[in-house]
Specification:
30% helix, CV3147-like, 2 domains, alpha+beta, homodimer
């Protein structure tokens, strides 16, 4: 069923998108301000269930591209996302029936809603990452055969670039990243244009709804147990299993912006000082180790939450002394196939570990 | 009158293009091999006088982009120039009637001939620099109102990028340079698409013929006085005045590849050791000073020629101990207007000098 997304949904959606951002994805609170303004000017956004999209419809996803460190300091001011969409439509010679997120974590859960509000296009409740990832080839769309090319990149000066690397999505990312750096570190993009049939086949379904559900569960659980409330809310989704990996205080953060990415590591100590958590990230959290043992691995979600409120904490805002609960969340089957893991599993990030589902590494009884 | 360019023209053309390259422009001898092969496979190239191009015809110039230092080591192997042309035609939704050089100096005198031989398109005998320049906004086309955008960039892996920065040709250069660096330092481009009427209004006319004439005069003058023969050949062209700026031996060369360009300086001492020449270059020679006094300034041509044969020497092949004659050559009026000088005069390269025509700085009687 399609539904109308209004200003009232945005607080929960932003919180949920930050959880699904697993530390990266750009700050959804910034995106929220943009969506709020667009909805105030143009009215609510129609969100389409993927099952409602015609097989023949053309869907063009829209997004922001850039290092979160830069995004945080450089708000999209103009019409760049629509400019990218229009450039790709013109290049293809076809108008889009809908837009869609490429990633449901972080600011990119919001950008298609801005486009939807401003253009009147519906937004499909699905995405191509099922979380946030740092690179454009890391999308289930591409994993299952939809090429990212041609893609359009729009800069804040009205510059438009259309990139076509055929079926080589990694090469597309490489060139688009170069263009984005020349545009000042942030750009807006339209890519992975596809049919409704391809949406149903390759997208992770209902991830806008998921973000909303996650954000709402955390809010409603405050005062009692927000983590338990979140775990309960996830049980009926494709992200079924939540495991508490660690509780403690942030002891160390090391972060640098390099080749257009935010890379680094963080460490936390348990409250009794007996145990140590280590996180590595490239924009997003990639691996969590406790006392040297792997507890959760990309593409499963590793989320750092503030200990009392379960408010998500991005790698940009990690600080010494923060009291945190770190949770692992299982991802849908479509994200754990061998093709998917080859594109965005541990090896794709240069990690030496074989992927294991978080629910297998951490049995339900053993958590905490 | 249109004429057929055959393999027999290539030796003179390459030499002349190297002279007009004023030290840069990429090695035309490499381009010559490509044209020779294309002519052997497909037959001669039709060269069109600009006066013969219909006012309504669409002309799309083609070229190579990249630092000469890289170009020298990385031959274009495939169909990149035609790929760029075809991508721009597709983007515009129109087929080109002809191609044209964007610069008549260096390898870019040759690339449109490769395209002409392979596709059967005629090549217009004109260009947008009247020499070689390091950046894409430095074209008379742009100076007189033809936008470079949209432009197409093709890489050797079949990657195609279309860039549109409206009327901002400097921004186009900036983004295209970033794409070219990501493509490995060299790419092929199609840009400044224009009508035949715009060719007649904005291009420097008959510069392929000019290169051929320059190369032939030097060859025919060997044994007697190739510099005098070159001066004589230029007298009837738009490049009327040749001045000998210096004769001596190269004493020092300093060269680096930086941000995609070859930058540096060179010095020569006169044979009697009494006088010193200094050259500064960014791909091309920008200023020649003798004993600290400016003798010739961009956009006028500063050409380093081997002392005995008048064979042109690029900045890439300048070596300690070479015996050279350095000449200055006046450029057409279209390249010396205030609009033109704002785009590619001394100030555009950060030089502190006001432009003065070489024939005014060095009176005919005083040369040698």
């Amino acid at each position: 069923m399609s539904w109308q997304l209004t200003e009232d949904h945005l607080e929960d959606l932003a919180r949920g998108a930050a959880v699904l951002g697993t530390g990266g994805g750009g700050d959804p609170y910034v995106g929220r301000l943009l969506v709020r303004q667009a909805i105030r000017e143009h009215g609510p956004v129609t969100v389409l269930d993927p099952d409602e999209v015609d097989d023949d419809a053309l869907v063009i996803p829209t997004a922001q591209m850039g290092a979160p460190t830069v995004v945080f300091e450089k708000l999209p001011s103009g019409r760049e996302p629509e400019t990218a969409l229009a450039a790709l439509e013109k290049h293809l010679g076809v108008r889009a029936s809908a837009t869609m997120p490429i990633e449901c974590g972080g600011i990119n859960s919001m950008i298609p809603l801005v486009v939807g509000a401003r253009t009147g296009l519906p937004v499909v409740d699905a995405d191509g990452m099922g979380r946030a990832f740092p690179e454009l080839q890391m999308e289930t769309f591409g994993v299952y055969g939809v090429p990212g090319s041609p893609m359009a990149v729009a800069g804040e000066g009205g510059e438009v670039t259309v990139i076509d690397t055929g079926t080589d999505n990694r090469r597309m990312e490489w060139i688009a990243r170069g263009v984005t750096i020349r545009l000042g570190g942030v750009a807006h993009i339209a890519e992975y244009s596809m049919s409704g049939a391809d949406v149903k086949r390759t997208a992770i379904p209902r991830t806008l709804s998921l973000a909303l559900r996650v954000g709402r569960a955390i809010r409603e659980g405050r005062g009692t147990d927000p983590i338990a409330c979140l775990a309960e809310a996830l049980r009926e989704t494709l992200y079924r299993d939540l495991r508490v990996l660690f509780r403690g205080k942030i002891a160390d953060v090391e972060r640098r912006t390099e080749a257009g990415f935010a890379r680094g590591r963080a460490a936390a100590l348990s409250f009794d000082g007996e145990h140590k958590l280590e996180l590595e990230f490239q924009n997003e959290n990639l691996v969590a180790r406790v006392d040297g043992e792997v507890r959760c691995l990309v593409p499963d979600l590793i989320c750092v939450l503030e200990a009392e409120t379960a408010e998500p904490i991005t790698t940009e805002t990690l600080r010494y002394g923060q009291r945190v609960t770190v949770v692992g969340i299982s991802t849908p089957r479509l994200m754990r196939t061998s093709e998917a893991l080859a594109t965005f599993g541990p090896a794709a990030f240069g990690l030496p570990h074989e992927f294991r589902p978080v629910e297998d590494i951490v049995p339900a009884a053993a958590q905490g």
